[in-house]
């Protein structure tokens, strides 16, 4: 893409071999519900994401 971007995509997180998530999703949801943690996580997805699963691309 040539420049930094934030990409949102629909991915299946049910198979732990396919991804790593930081902050862990249960911690993220509980922390957000309690108002003590920011609402973001980084997902490292190990498989190709089909183009039709890309929701948005925001260039920074």
Radius of gyration over alpha carbons? 13 Å
Mean pLDDT: 84
Strand percentage lies at 25-35%
Order of helices and strands: EEHEE
Sheet having the most strands: 2 strands, antiparallel
Q: Roughly how many Å apart are the termini?
A: 12 Å
* Structural domain tally: 1
Helix proportion? 10-25%
The coarse silhouette is globular
Main structural class: alpha+beta
**Major sheet strand order:** 1-4
What is the element layout, followed by pairings?
Elements: E1 5-9, E2 19-22, H1 25-34, E3 42-45, E4 54-59
Antiparallel strand pairs: 1-4, 2-3
Can you walk me through this structure?
The chain has one helix spanning 25-34; strands at residues 5-9, 19-22, 42-45, 54-59. The model has no long low-confidence stretch (mean pLDDT 84). The chain is 17% helix and 32% strand. 0% of the residues are buried. It is of the alpha+beta class and 60 residues long. It has one domain. It is built from one helix and four strands; from the N terminus they run E-E-H-E-E. It is globular and about 35 Å long. The strands form two sheets. It has a two-stranded antiparallel ribbon. It has a two-stranded antiparallel ribbon with strand order 2-3.
């Amino acid at each position: 893409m040539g420049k930094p971007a934030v990409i949102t995509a629909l991915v299946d997180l049910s198979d732990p071999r396919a991804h790593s998530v930081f902050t862990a999703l249960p911690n993220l949801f509980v922390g957000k519900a309690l108002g003590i943690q920011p609402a973001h996580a980084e997902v490292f997805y190990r498989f190709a994401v089909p183009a039709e699963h890309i929701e948005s691309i925001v260039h920074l």
